[in-house]
Amino acid sequence: MTEHDDSDSHHPGPPRFLQLGESIADPIYVDMEHGYDRDNLAPTITGTPERDPDPYRKETFVWRLREKPEGSKAGLEYAPTPFENDAEQYDEGTHNTAEFEPDKSGTYVFELDAPDGTHELTIEVVPPPVTEDGTELFDIEDELPTDAREATGGPPRLALDGAYDADAGEFVIESNPELAPDSYAAPEDLAVLVLPHDAASLDRDEIDVEGNTARVPIEALDGPTRVFAAPYDGVRLGTTDEIVLDPDETAVSYPNRAPEWLDDAVVYEIFTRSFAGQKGETDFEFLTEKVEYLDELGIDLLWLTPIVPAWSGTADTPPGGPHGYDTSDYFTVAEDLGTIEEFEAFVETCHDHDIKVAFDLVANHVGWDHAYWQDTIADLGDGPEDPNGFPEVDAWDTDSPYFDWFDRQSRTNGIDATPAQTSFFDVRLHPNLNYGNLALREHILAVVDFWSDIVDAFRCDIAWGVPHSFWTEARRLTREKDEAFLWLDESIPRIPEMGESEFDLHFDSTEFMRTAHAVARGERPPKDLIGAIEVRQNDGFPSYSRVINATENHDESRLYYEATANGHRTDPAAAQRAALAAAFTLPGVPFLYYGQERLISEYGERRESPYAGREDQTGDIKADPYKRAFMNWAEYDAPHLEFVSALVDFYHESPVLGPEATLVREAHRAAAGDDVLVFGRDAGEEKRVVVINFADHSHWVDLRLPVETHDLFTGEDLLVDRKDDAVTVEVETLAVFETPTLFEQGGNYWHEDEPLPNDP
Q: Which of 46, 101, 553, 711 could form a disulfide with 23 if both were Cys (CB 3.0 to 4.6 A apart)?
């Protein structure tokens, strides 16, 4: 279902909610020092996006700030430099986008003059979380905050739910706002901000908001209309949700929800050029042959690292291996992997086995040898001593139609002529793309349009390095073709705002993965994994958000390697099985990185690092030689593979292990607090107690009654002893028990003075 505003109009996207102190800015640097949040105001592209559009003239689109709060001196900006002591952003003077920083809370209304008329955009700004003198708004014990989170706790969240009331002739929208568990606010502080899409016939004054309920008369709508809402607790602003009201069908829909198929899905990532097990052997024919293996393993969504042409895919020993994250052509596949027809045949084979395929979209930067980047270079200077480096640029071709497609600074970078490019984390292989240029945006939208006709999902590399405005437009393009199309963001650290009609599934490397590694090394207790899940609420992820429970990926060390090289557990393989059990049984979307199921870190062939023996360089492969190793097809641990296969099957068959079931800190006792994790999953009528053991031997665990002792995972009765109020079970790695009730506890321990049966 599409909303009322014409998809062929150059409207500037949906309304925005901001907190004073936030800005809409798209800096030219992509690194740890310049923020993790990019945005700009941009007209949307009409019709089918072109691959190589002509440059847009400056006068084609004109922005104005028509309305702002009293006393505001804010104005539109073009190519600002929001960071101190940085080079100014190079401004070619042809911008069709704008950036903005509010200076007062209240309502700002922008106008965009476009070839098809004048469009509006409303931005609602709420007060900042702390006062100007730094005094805590919730003045607890007169302590001064060091940041907004410490002063106020996490932001609130909401989930819109609507229905048509025929008797009243109106749509009723319930927002269901919730405070963050660690919030200092009170429930009565919660408010809900509501705005219609500015292109709709519905005016904001026609929405009757009372408390947490909004009412919209059906006569105020002349077609499907999008309405947006965000929670505000008086101090923190939460993420925005979206609902579509359809007066013709008297129905509602929720474009901001993940496709339903994700709630039963297991994700599997392949580092493409390592999957065949030998250098240079992976191609689409081999991948097609292995679809049967993936089907037997129970995979639902397959993510391949980039398959497009890239310098790193052709170099002998590139840093990081042949990763492909340096695109030289977005519209075809790498020659060493095969033809695009062979890739399409591979995707079709996956579909025949009910496996969906995710394309790795690298939209923040391209590779050094991309034709459009090369077109901007007039003269090259000396080449580097490092064989994996790139030559100096002595002069630029400023007449190139692609010159402004790349972020540039108004100075040299010490290597290249002015205006020098900026690169992803200063890696010259990766010139940053400039989303302030509308032709570049259209080019990348054409990429999205092209591949979304072939694959089922996008995994988006460094999603925070691309403006929110682009992701919103790109996601809508795919959803208009296929409502079940999935968007997965790589945002490190994780960013709840990426779920504002942009991404359906989110990375969680900073909490869950790193906690799992620490537990596997024996440095943290397993109960910290529960905290890693629960903190998602404090971060502001709404209840409908879907977050990946990954214990490895191609950018992080292998968990087994971490446990072996840096930990002190005696059986790292047992710790890996336990970590995977946690990833599959705790709330979240379970994830496997190729080779985890076959103990690749023990049996696989490590990749050669170009920096071997060099103390001045590390690199991905040197840090962990197995993170991108060759797949071990011949030799592997058969019982380990059987465990992982059984775990995948169990996840699919269980009625309580999906993202919707509630997580409960179930009361228990165990003598091995640093080895054993116990929790409950509550799906209403169905409830389970889950026990996971990270040790190299079985453990006895006391569980409070009532609970069955028949293990649903192994099919065995694990009873060791029975008392009046508890049973003792013996668990090797994973056990899941039925229970009619769960006891929410503040901690993991109970009746601590009572003795346990002897631990074996």
A: 101
